[in-house]
Amino acid sequence: MTTETSADTTIFERRESQVRSYCRAFDTVFTTASGSTLTDAKGNIYTDFLSGCSSLNYGHNDADMKAALVDHITSDGIAHALDMYTGPKAAFLETFERVILTPRGMDHKVMMTGPTGANAVEAAIKLARKVTGRTNVISFTNGFHGMTLGALSLTGNSGKRGGAGVPLTGVTHLPFEGSLGDDVDTLAVVENMLTNDSSGIDAPAAIILELVQGEGGLNAASRTWVEGIARLAKTVGAKLIVDDIQAGIGRTGDFFSFDEMDIEPDMVTLAKSLSGFGLPFALTLIKPELDIWKPAEHNGTFRGNTHAFVTAKVALEKFWADDTFKKDVAAKAEILEGHLQIIAEMVPGARLKGRGMMQGVDVTNGDLAAAICAEAFKQGLVIETSGAQDEVVKVLAPLTTPVDQFTQGLETLVEAARTCLNATTQTKIAAE
C-alpha cells in the first residue's frame, strides 16, 4: 500500500516551530530514498551529499539492514526494553566486541545512553567529573558537541550558545590546532595553560575533542597534535574524551577517527551512523576502571534502541568484518579531494579542509558557500555548509555511494561553483 504525499508545505509553515533549519535550504517535500538518491513529491530526483549530517554513512534503506529490521518487527521482536537484557542487545554487543573492540585491543565498557550524540557527551562529561572530583572540562575553539546545556557549554559557536538562556559554565575553551594561524603552535599554548599554576585555569576533569570538527568547519587535527593532547591529558590527570559522533564510523577512513593514532581515549562518544539505518542510537565507550556508576545513576527511557541493535549488527558484519569497505572509502576520498581542489583553484584564498570522506572547501565567504550549495540543489544535489561563518562547502556523501553517482555529484558541485563565481564576476563588472 502506498500513500500519496502532497508537495504542499503549508502545514509545516502553519504548525512547525521556527527552529527548523535544513528545510529552509531544501524547500521541497522528500518522499522516498534509496542508497544515495532522494525523491520528492514532484518526482524530482536528488543525489544526497548530506547523509543526515553523517547519520547515513551507509546510505538510505540498505537492503540487508532493512530485511533484518522488517523480519524483527514482523516476528514480534522486542521493540522497547529500557536497559533490560534482550537477544538483539546481546547480538549487537557480541558483534561490536568481535568486529570493532577486540581487534583494536579496546577493553572499554559500552554504556547505552539516550538516543542522541548529545546524550553520549552528557554522560561522558558527567562521569569524568564523578571520577576525578573536578568540575572543569577543556574543550576547543570551533568545537561542537551538542545542544543540551552540558554539551552546549562545550560548544564554541556563539549563535548556538546564545540559545541557552542561562550561563554556560564549567568549561574552558582553548585553541584547536590551526585556530591561531599556521605560525602558532597551539599544542604548546594549551600545554602552557594547563601546566602553569598561574594560568587561572582550574585542573580539568576531562579534555574533549573532535579529531575533525564537523560543524566547526572541517578543521582536522594532525596526528602529532592529537597525540600531544593525549599525553597532556595524562600529565594533568584529565580524562581524554574523543567525540566521534560525526567523524567516526568510517567517515574519516576507519571506524574510529583515531585508529591510525597512538592514543587510548578514556571515553569515546558514538551516535549518528551507529545504527547504520538512521535510527536513533548513541553510546559512550568507557575504560573499565572508570565505570563507577551506581545502577540508574545516569539513565534515560530510550537508552538503547532495540531496532537499532538489529540494524547496527548487520552494518558491522557487512562493512567492518574485513578491510574491503575501508579501502573503498579511501579510494572515494581521493576522488573527492581531486574535485574539491578544482573548486579551490577557482576561488582566491580557498583551501581544502578535513580528511577521508569528511572533506570540504573553505571558499572564505559564507554568502558564496551558501550560494554554491543553493545552486547545487537547483541542479539536483543536496549539500550543506559548515564553519563559524558557514564558509565551508561540506561534502558528507554516503560512504556507499556508487562511484559513477559520486563522481557525477561532484561534477555538479564543481559546475555550481563555476556558475556562482561567474555570476559574481558579472555583478562586479556591472557595478563598475
UniProtKB/TrEMBL annotation:
Keywords: Aminotransferase, Pyridoxal phosphate, Transferase. One of its GO terms (molecular function) is diaminobutyrate-pyruvate transaminase activity. It holds the Pfam family Aminotran_3. SUPFAM superfamilies: PLP-dependent transferases. It comes from the Bacteria. Its EC number is 2.6.1.76. InterPro entries: Aminotrans_3, Aminotrans_3_PPA_site, Dat, Ectoine_EctB, PyrdxlP-dep_Trfase, PyrdxlP-dep_Trfase_major, PyrdxlP-dep_Trfase_small. One of its GO terms (biological process) is ectoine biosynthetic process. Pathway: Amine and polyamine biosynthesis; ectoine biosynthesis; L-ectoine from L-aspartate 4-semialdehyde: step 1/3. CDD domains: OAT_like (cd00610). The keyword Nucleotide-binding does not apply. Its cofactor is pyridoxal 5'-phosphate. Belongs to the class-III pyridoxal-phosphate-dependent aminotransferase family. This is Diaminobutyrate--2-oxoglutarate transaminase.
